[in-house]
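hiii so my PI (J.) wants the whole complex modelled not just the main chain, which honestly fair. so below is everything: two entries, each one labled with what it is. i double checked the lines twice but i was tired so who knows lol
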Amino acid sequence: MPKDNLNQDNIEISRRKMMGLVVGVINLGLIGAIVGPMVGFAAAPLGNKRKSRWVELMDESRIKPGEVKEVNYSLLVVDGYHEVEQKFTVFLRRSEEDVICIDPACTHLGCRVDYHADQHKFICPCHGGVFDDEGTNKSGPPPKPLERHPVKVEAGKIWISREV
Amino acid sequence: MSQKTYKPKDAPTLSPEVKVDEPREAVSSEERLQIERPSLRDWMDLRLGWYGFVRKNLDEPMPAGVGWWQTLGNLLMTLLVFQFITGFALAMYYSPSPDSAHASVKHLTYEVGLGSFIRGLHSWGSTVIVIAVVLHMLRVFFWGSYKKPRELTWVVGVIIFQVILGFSFTGYLLPWDQKAYWATVVGTRIAATIPVVGHALLVFIRGGEEVGALTLTRFYSFHVMLLPASLILFTFLHLYLVRRHHIAGPVTPAKGAPVPFYPNQLFKDAIVLLFGVGLLIYLAVALPPGLEAIADPTGTDFSPRPEWYFLGLYELLKVMPSGWEVVATVIIPTGITIGMFALPWLDRSKSRHPAKRQWIIMSGFAAILLIGLMTLKGILETPPEHKKSEATLAESNDIPKAEATQLESLGE
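here's the output for the full assembly
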C-alpha cells in the first residue's frame, strides 16, 4: 500500500487511540499512586509484632491448692500513639502440682468469662459458653479451651508471661 | 440510549389536562441567552439552568395508586440529612482518643447547652433510620419494584443499606463507654471467625490485636469520612435512577391518570416527615441518651450486648453449636446480603404480583421471620448478670509503685 494512501482519518484514529491509551495509563497510575500507599498505611498495624513480657503477680502462698483466683494487674503498654497503663485480668488455678493461668476472653467472641466457684465453671455471659475450671470448653458455642498464659514460680512468687 | 430518548415501557405520563404550575419561558432558547439586562432571577436561571431541572422533577408524573408507602424514601433521606448535621455538630466537641473520648461525650451531653438534645437526635436518629430503611426495603420487596428496569436502583439501595449498618457499627464505639467497648470487642471478633484471613482482618479492623486507641481513630475516620462520602454518592445515584426509570406503580395498575409529584406526593411526604421527625424529636427529649462507665477491659459489671437491630445476629450466635459459629458470623449474613443484591435476578417472573412470585415472597417471609424472632428473643431475654468479681490485685508489676498503690485503693 503506497504511503500517501493512508488518509488523514486513519492517522487521526490511531492518534486518538494512542492518546486515549496514554490517558488510561496515566489514570491507572494515579489510582495506583494514591490507593497503594493508602492501603499500606491503613494496614500498617498488621506488621506489628507482639512481645512476651513476664509479670510478677503475687505470692504463691496467697492461693491454695484447688483454688481459682481472679487477679487484676496493669501494665504499661503501647496503644497506638501513646503508652497507657492497661488493666488486665487473669484467672490463676492452683492444683497440687502446679499453677495455671487462664485468660478470661471467651474463645467464642471475646466476651469476658466469669468464674462460678460453686459450680467450678467459667461461664460466658454473652452466648452462654461454659468451661470447666481448667478452661476446657464444655458446652455452648466456644470452639476451643480458654487461652493459657505461661506461668513460672520463682522464689515463692507467681509470674506469668503475656504478649503485649 | 441517551437520557432524553430513554423512556421505560411503563413510564407514566401526565395527561395534557393535568394542571401544573404555569411553565416559565424556556430558558435555553437562543434569544433569551441574548437578553442584555435580565432580572436577577432570570440571570441566575440563565447561568444555572436550574429552573428547568427543578421543574422537571416537581412535575415528575406519579402513577395512580402511588401514595403513602412511597414517602419512606423521602423520610429516610431527611433523617440522613439530620444525621449529617447533628454529626457535624457533635464532631465540634468530640475527641477520638481513649484518653478523652468518654470525657468529651460526657461534657457535650451534660455540660454543653442542648448537648443532650443534639446527641439524642443523633443516637435516636440511627434507630429511626434503621426502621425507615427496613420499611422502605420491605415496600419495594412486596411491590416487586426492583424488577426490570429498576434492578440497579435496588442494588444501589442495598449498598446504601450496608453503608447505614456500617455507620451504626462504627458510631456505636465512639462514646467509649462499656457498652461501646464490649460491643466492638465482640463485633470485631466476628471477623476473626473467617477461615484463613480472619486474624489479619481482625488486626486490620482494630488497628492492632486489641480494641484500643487505633480502633477508635479508625472507626472515627470511617464514620466521618468514608461512610458519609459513600452515602452521598450512592444516594445521588439512587435518586438519579429513581427519576430515570420513574416510580413503579402499584402491583395491579390503579385506575386514574398519573399526577405530578408536586404538590400531590410532596404533600404526603411532608405529612410523613412531620410525624417521623416529630417522633425523633420526642424520643430525643423524652429519652435522652445515657453514657455508661468508661470502657474497661477488666470490667465485670457489664454484659456485652449490641444495639437492638444487631440482636438477631447476637442470638443466632448463641444457638450455633461449637465449631459452627462461622455459619452465624459469616455464612448466614453473607448469604442474606448476596441474596439481597441478587434479588432482581433471582426473581425472574414477569409479574410483580406477590401471588405470581410465591417462592421469593416465601423466602422473604422466612428471612424476616427468622430475623424478627431472633431479635425479639434478644430483646426479651434479660442479660445474665455478670458475677460479682472478687479479684485480687497483683502485688507488684512494672507500673510505678505509686500508681499501683493508687490503683489498689481504688480497687478492692
